[in-house]
Structure formats: structure tokens, C-alpha cells
Amino acid sequence: MGDSAISSAATADVNEVSARLALLGAPNCGKTSLFNALTGGRAKVANYPGVTVEYRKGKFALPNGQGIELLDLPGVYGDCGHSMDERVAIDAVRGNLEGERRPDGLIFMMDASHITTHLHNVLQAKNYGLPMVLVLNMMDMAARDGIDIDVNQLEALLGIPVISCVAVRASGRAHLLDFLQDWAGDVLHGSAAKPEPEADTLKDLQAKARQITGGAVSRIEQAETFTQRIDKIVLHPVFGILILAGLLVFMFQAVYWWSGPFMDAIEGGFAWLQGRVDAILPNGWVKSLISDGIIAGVGSVLIFLPQIVILFAFILLLEASGYMARAAFLVDTLMAKVGLNGRAFIPLLSSFACAIPGIMAARTIEQERDRLTTILIAPLMTCAARWPVYIMIIGAFIPNTKVGVLGLQGLVAFGLVVVGIVFAMIMAFIFKRTLMKGAKSTLLIELPSYKMPVFKDYLMGLWERAKIFINRAGRIILPASIIIWFLASYPTKDDGIAGTFAGMIGGVIEPILKPIGFNLEIAISLIPGMAAREVVVGALATIYALDSEAIDGPIREVLQNSWSLPTALAFLAWFVFAPQCLSTLAIMKKETNGWKWPLFAFAYLFGLAYVAAGLTYHTARAFGL
Amino acid sequence: MIQDSQTPITLRDLAKHEKAVICGFDLSDAELVTRLREIGFAEGDPVEALHFGLFGRNPMSVRLNGALIALRRSEAQAILVKAL
Fold first, then answer.
1. Are B42 and A337 a contacting pair at CB < 8 A?
2. When you count CB atoms within 10 A of the terminal residue's CB, does the N or C end of chain A come out lower?
3. What pLDDT, in 10s, does the model give residues A319-345?
4. What single-letter DSSP state applies at residue A528?
């Protein structure tokens, strides 16, 4: 459920007389900016990776009242569909997309600066047989780069209408809107001209495209563009990697520092709400369900919203400015060592917020085996849900001393993140040489010119990501919280947690976890932790709070008195791998079309977690800790 | 070996800032050639090698008709060029 339901809901109120137009074009040509500007951003999106992956739909009315339904498709160069997101675009245009009617006409969008490299894609798109208009976007930038396009001449040579446009400015879109007033009506009534078919080999298409650009485009070679000057440093083999590393360090610092006040405010808000509920409702199961179950459970997840928003604020900024493709270029040299490619960088970076958007973003990777490998290692990136666990255990067991200028607690946390990354690379290396053998990994990406991000598009993108995170809290965490509350409260909690269903289940798994130093309380907390890793923190708090034999006090003191140091360290080691996250396994099932890979991921992560925790526990004991 | 300027070499052999003209493709990997053509490489286009990665000069980036394309040297090997 979910994604497809969201996108199909958008069609429910679509006006019968709307013309359906699809925006087609290469990545980074400005489709999304035009889409947002025309529809006011009132779009239904099914997805949240760092790039447009499924497709977005929106409606708007032209000045003459003609309704338009617009599809924003993923960027695509040709008609082969090498990656999953490219196939979505091509299927949509061919009318092969499930539950989606074929569009009535195509708006082919092109970055005017790239007319020479991309014109053959326009000729190729004529073969779809749909009425089509070519929109040359960013004509202002092209002129600045010394490219002069004779639009009338181009129109004559291409045999389709050509409109020049600056999508991010209202004045730049006026010409396009004027054109659409007549054209969209014709498209709807089937009277718009369909393009003449073109040759079908790329070589012939390119030859014709070069002839056309020869007749309609003149280029004055510029000394050195702004982008080229910046790239001299940013793509430098040594400085480039140092700049990227600096950016990442800053980004992670910001995620954990800037989010503090917001997280405190959210925590305070939920505490206040809990206090109000406790004061208003009479004692009993209803109050316990709302206060201990729903508010505590949902609150413990929504508290990570600030971190998610800050991380995506950076990712979207890097993406919109044109830097992200360069990051992929810079890390490709390292990724090649483990058999992956630079495109895996964006999914893996997103996975530091949450593996779910990371796994979905892997759709942009063309080779299926590379995509699968990326999906399998994505859960090893330290997602936001692990931080509450790290913060709680490190705060309780690692002394707050300094090592040089750095705090020991921070170093341990950083070390856990590094261990995750190292194991991700090791596992990628192993998978690519065993299960995923044979596929040659490739890169081949266009590095777009640097751009100033459009503030409105940026905020909309950020809001879309936040919205999906909040929805998830409602769809997954809310029901999970209710179930946990029930399991931890019934049939009886008179004898502490052991008498509840949760205690019984915990008693069954405890023997498995005992050899790695875990106690009954940990075993119990890992069950609700299946819903989301961070739930473990709340679950431990609840379990020790309900347990009459445990001492009262803040969870940190309770743990210091109930756990040995080796147990605490083993618990941290477990969470580096932490296989238990139902949402991650569910999205893996969706993205790989079956249970094979999610079950495999669970098994290998469980094995690593078990061995790592066991080794940590016994090593720590051997050293007398 | 002395390279005659008329003998085709491949894009991967270009040094930094070296310019060349594309004269054909190595067709042994047809899908790769399709992808190279789709992104914009075509016979007769001028190219210039611009940036190289840290290890093994991999990947590389090339200027192509005002666009900047990043690719691995194994992919660049499928593009035959004549040095200028």
C-alpha cells in the first residue's frame, strides 16, 4: 500500500475535460521547476528519494480556463530505460504504466545550453507518435554561454513547435502558457498534429540532429564558464575529496547539533500532552493506552523529525545546486574498489537519515546487481533511529572524559558510525564477488552546471520528505505502539514484566541472546524494536518502569545498576548491524519484488550483529571490564 | 610507441586538457554504445578530457559540446577518437 495509493488518489478529482500532458526530458533540465511553477506545487508524489523517482501529478488551469493534468516524469535520455526510474518515464509515455492513462501530448523539455548533445533525444521522442512541443529551458543561461538558437529555424527543421522558456520566472513562462492555450485544446480534441516518425537508429538520429543544430544553432566558444572555474577545485582529485569530506563532517555535526533545541521542544510538547491526558482522564486502561502507549510511542519517533529535516535540507541543497553528481564522481574512485559505482553514494547518504529513502533512491542505479548490493548494505549506514540507542547507552556507560580536544563519548559514537561504513564496504566487496558476480559496474553521468537552487522548489522538496516521515509515524509507529502497550500490559503486570505477553515472548528468545551477554529485559525490548529501532529506548524505559524489582530513577541510572559494562558494549555492537526494522524489510520486499532479498538481508545482518555482540561481550569480559 | 595523429586511439587514453574528435565506437558492448550515444557522444564531436579521479585516474570527466560527462575509463575505452 501507500505509494501507489497516493499517486492514484490524485486522479480521483481530475476534471474530465483536462488535457493530459507529460513532461519529458533529460535529468536536470528543469522539469520539476516548471511543474512546480505551473501547478503551484500541488502535486501528489509517491516517493521520497533525493531525486524524482516515481512521478508526480498535478493540475492547473490555463488563462483561458482550459484544464491541464501534468505528469512530471523522471529524467531520461533515450527510450531504452536502463534504470528503474527511466523505465517509469518511458512506460508512462508509451501508456504501459499500470493504472495510468497514456498522456495526450508531450512537453519535451531541454536545457537550451545542451541542445547539441541532446537534440537527437527530441527526434527519438517524435517516434512515440504523440503530439509534442519542444520547450527550450534556461534560454538566458544559454545566451550567457554564447549559444544562439534560431527558434523559428529550429521549428522548421524539427517539424514540431518550439518554445523558448525560462521556467523559474513568470515572464519566462508567459510564452509557453500562450502556446498551450491553443495547443492543449487541439491535443485534447485529437486535432493537434502528430510528429512525423524519425529514423530508429541512434546513429542516424544523431547525424540528423547534428545537421539541424548546424543550421539553427551558433555557438561562440567561451573562455571559461563559472562552472568550469569552480570544477577546477571541486573536481580536483585531492582537494575535491577533502572538500567533500569537510562537507560531510559539517553536515553530520549540523544534523546532531542544530536539531537539539527542536528535539527538546518536541519532547517537551509530548510531555505536556501526556501531562494533560494524565490530569484529565481517570485512571484505567484508556488513560494508559493513550498516555503510555500512543503518546509515548509516537512521540519517541517524531522526535527525530528535526534530524531528518536537517539531513534532507543538506541533501536537497547538494542536489539542487548540481554538486551531488560531482560527489558521485569523487567517490566513484573509492566505490570502484568494492565493485560499486558512484551513483550508490546518494542512496547511501540518504540512509544516514533512514534506510527507506535510501533503498528507494537506489532505483537510479542502472545495473540491477549494483542496485541490489546497494539495497543490501543500506541498513549498515547509521540511521537516525540508532542515535537514541547510542546516546542512551553511551551516556550511561562511557565516561564523559576528553581524549585530546575531543570528547570520548563523541568518539565512541563516531567510531560506531565508521564501523558501520567499513562493514558496508566489506559486505559490498563480498556480495559483488559472490552473489552479484558478473555485472560490470558503470558510471556515465552528466555533471550539470552549478545552479542557484529555486527557494520554492527547495522548500517543497523538504516538505514532501517531512510529510512522508510524519505519515510513517502514523501508519507504522502508531499501530506498533498500541500493540507494544498491549503486550507489555496484559494478561497481568502484577509480577513485573515477566507476567506479560512481552515477558513470555522475551523468555523464549532470551536463551538465544544469553551467550552474547543480553538479559531478559533486552530480549523483550528487541521485540517491539522490530517496529522501529528507536522504540527499543522507550521499551527499555517502560520495561524497567513496570518492573517492581528494578530501582526507580532515570533510565540512565537504572541501566548503570542493572547492566554490566560488557553487556552495554555488546548492545552497542549489536546496534551497528541491528537487523530488526520491519519498515526496512518491507521496503526491500517492495523494491526487489519478493521476500528473498529482505530475508537474506535479515539473516546476514542478524549473523553479523550476533557475532559482533558476542565478540564484544567476551573480549570485554576477558579484559576484566 | 610513437602515435601517429591519424591512428584512432580511445577516449581513455587522453591526457588532461587533451582535445580529440570522436571517430567511432567499439561495438563489442552494444548496450554501452547505446548509453553513450543517448547521453550525447556522437561521431564528429570534439571532446576534451578535464578531470580524473584519485586512484588509477578513474573515473574521468570530459567536455562534450558544452556538457560535462563523467564516466569510467572502461566506458571511455569504447569511444574511438582522433587526437587533435
1. no
2. N
3. 889 898 999 999 998 888 888 888 888
4. G
For A239, the closest chain B residue by CA position comes to B54
What does the pLDDT look like over A342-395, one tens digit per residue?
Answer: 888 888 988 887 888 888 888 888 888 889 999 999 999 988 778 778 878 888
- CA separation for the pair A217, A136 (Å, rounded): 12
Spatial separation of the C-alpha atoms in residues B32 and A446, rounded to whole Å: 15
Q: Which residues of A touch B35 (CB under 8 A)?
A: 77-78, 80, 82, 366, 442, 444
Residue A558 grid coordinates:
537504572
Rounded distance between C-alpha atoms, residue A297 and residue A273, angstroms: 13
Nearest Cα residue to B21 out of B46, B4, B40, B42:
B46
Out of 2.10.50.10, 1.20.1250.20, 3.40.50.300, 2.30.30.90, select the CATH number for domain B9-83.
Answer: 2.30.30.90
Residue whose C-alpha is closest to residue A121's, from A565, A506, A446: A446
- Please give the ipTM for the structure prediction: 0.91
- A450 at B interface, C-beta within 8 A: no
Whether B27 has its CB under 8 Å from any CB of chain A: the answer is no
Is the Cβ of A334 closer than 8 Å to some Cβ of chain B? yes
d(CA A519, CA A510): 7
What mean pLDDT do residues A430-440 have? 81
Instruction: Measure the CA–CA gap between A439 and A442, rounded to whole angstroms.
Output: 9
Q: Closest Cα partner for A141 from A589, A421, A366, A448?
A: A448
Q: Which residues of B touch A328 (CB under 8 A)?
A: 70
Q: How confident is the model at residue A427 (pLDDT cuts 50, 70, 90)?
A: very high
Cβ of residue A332 closer than 8 Å to a chain B Cβ: yes
The predicted-structure confidence for A345-360, as pLDDT tens digits, reads as follows 888 988 887 888 888 8
Q: Cβ–Cβ of B68/A446 closer than 8 Å?
A: yes
* B82: closest CA of chain A, how far (Å): 19
What is the helix (H) or strand (E) element at residue A19, kind and residue range? Answer: strand A19-25
Q: Which three cell numbers stand for residue A376?
A: 543490501
- CA–CA separation, B68 vs A470, rounded Å? 38
Q: DSSP letters along A211-265, please?
A: HHHHHHEEE---S--HHHHHHHHHT-TTHHHHHHHHHHHHHHHHHHHHHHHHHHH
Residue position matching grid coordinates 509515524 = A473
Q: How confident is the model at residue A65, as a pLDDT?
A: 87
pLDDT of residue A413: 83
- This prediction has a pTM of 0.82
Closest-CA residue of B relative to A448 is B68
A505-519 burial, b if ≥16 CB within 10 A, otherwise e? Answer: ebeebbeebeebbbb
Q: Residue A341: name the closest of A362, A364, A370, A379 by CA.
A: A370
In whole numbers, what is the pLDDT of chain A averaged over residues?
84
Average pLDDT for A152-176: 93
